[in-house]
Amino acid sequence: xxKQTLKQKIPIRFIGRVTDNxxxxxxxxHIQNATPGLYTLDIEHIxxxxxxxxxxxxxKESIEEAYSKKLCQHKCKTCFNEEKGLYNQFVxxxxxxxxxxxxxKPKLNRIMTLEDTLKVVDQAIEIAREEDHDFxxxxxxxxxxxxxxxxxxxxxxxxxxxxxxxxxxxxxxxxGSDELxxxxxxxxxxxxxxxxxxxxxxxxxxxxQSFNDELQDNLVTSIDEKGNIVGLQGYSKIRExxxxxxxxxxxxxxxxxxRICIINAPIIPENIDESFDIYRFFIERATPVVMTPSMLSxxxxxxxxxxxxxxxxxxxxxxxxxxxxxxYNVKKGVQTDEQIRNEGIASxxxxxxxxxxxxxxxxxxxxxxxxxxxxxDKETVFANVNDTPLKKIWQNxxxxxxxxxxxxxxxxxxxPAKDGYAFLQDFYDRVMKRYQEILNKG
Length: 442
Prior knowledge:
Blueprint: H1 2-9, E1 40-44, H2 48-54, H3 63-71, H4 114-130, E2 137-142, H5 152-161, E3 165-170, H6 178-185, H7 189-197, E4 202-207, H8 213-219, E5 222-223, E6 229-230, H9 235-247, E7 260-267, H10 275-283, E8 289-293, H11 308-332, H12 337-343, H13 356-359, E9 360-363, E10 368-370, E11 381-384, H14 390-396, H15 398-405, H16 427-441
Parallel strand pairs: 1-2, 1-9, 2-3, 3-4, 4-7, 7-8
Antiparallel strand pairs: 5-6, 9-10, 10-11
C-alpha cells in the first residue's frame, strides 16, 4: 500500500509543531498583500505542432480528438477540462450549439500558438504595471499534462525571462516513470525532476487523491463503451516513485518546500474519510496541502448528481473535515486562531485562502477569458482575446469589481465556482462554529 511505502521512504520533518520559517503554500499561488488589480492568470498551453494541425481547415483531426492521445495519458472521472467545443475544430457556444460565421458556415475554432499566448501574458504584465504592482504568477491548468509538451522548457524559460512564477498542475507520472519521461522529454524521470527543480520560478501542484491504490487507479481511468479500461494503468505505483523523486530533489530545502503542493482534489464520498490522514501525512513532511471538493466545470458537475440525502450526508462530513483540519493547524502551528478568524474559512481547507478570482483571470487555449477554472457558463465566460484586448476584458470583469467592492475578497474570495453547489449556503459559518467547538475542547 502507498501509505506504508511512503512512510518508509519519506521521513517525518515536523514531529511536533512546524518551524517558524515554513510557509503554508506554494509561492504566489495566493497573492499576498494584494490591492485591486490583475496579478495572476490561469492559463492553457497546447504544443504548437498540434495547434498547427488543428488550425489547418484541410486537416480534420482537432485538439479535442487528439486530447487523450497527445495531451494526457489519464482519463479522470472528474476531469474539469472537457468542455465541449473548446478544443473542437469548430466553435460551440455556451449552450453547446454550433456557431455559424457570416456566410452560414461553422465558425472555425482557432487555437492560440505559444507566441499568441505569451503576447496575452505580456498584456497582463502591462496592465499590472499601469496598476502600479508586479504581475506575479501563472498557473497551468491544462488541457492534459504540460510535462508531455515538447515545448515544456521553452515555456518555462519564457516565464523565467519575464520574472513570473510558473506553477503547474500535474499528476506527475512523467517524473515517476523513466519510460514516460524518455518518451516525452528524452531523459529519465529523476533527470526531469532535477531539471525542473533547477528553475527557481517553477512550482508543481501534485495530485494525490487517495492512499488506496485501487481507488486511486480507478479515479484516473474510465471505462469506454466497449468495457475496456482507458487511461494510464498502475498509476498509484508510479506516483510513489514520483513523490520519492520530488522529496529527494532541490524542490526541498532542509526538508521543507514552498515549491511543491499536494492537491487532494476533488474530495468525494469515496475519499473523504481518508482526507484528514492525507493532509496530516504531508504537513508532517513539510509539504503544503490543498484540499477541496469538485468544481462545476467539465465532468466535475457529475459529482452533484446525487440525492438530497446523500448531499446532506456528504456536506456534514465536509464540515467536520474542514473544522478538524483548522483545529489541527492551530495545534500544529500551521495557522493561528487569530489568522483563521481574520482570513475566514477558505474553500481550500487549511491552506492559504483563494483570492485568484479577485486578482486574476483564466485564459483558455482558444482565447476565451473566463472567471476561473471552476465554472463555464454565461455568467463566468467574459470575452475572447482574439476579439477584445485583455485590458478591456479585465476592466469590465466581475473579477476586478470583486476586489474593489470588498477588500476582503483580496484576502479570501471563497469560491464562486463552488458556493451554493459543493458548499451549501451556510457551509463557511458551520465550519467556523464547529472548528471553535473542537478548539475549545482542546
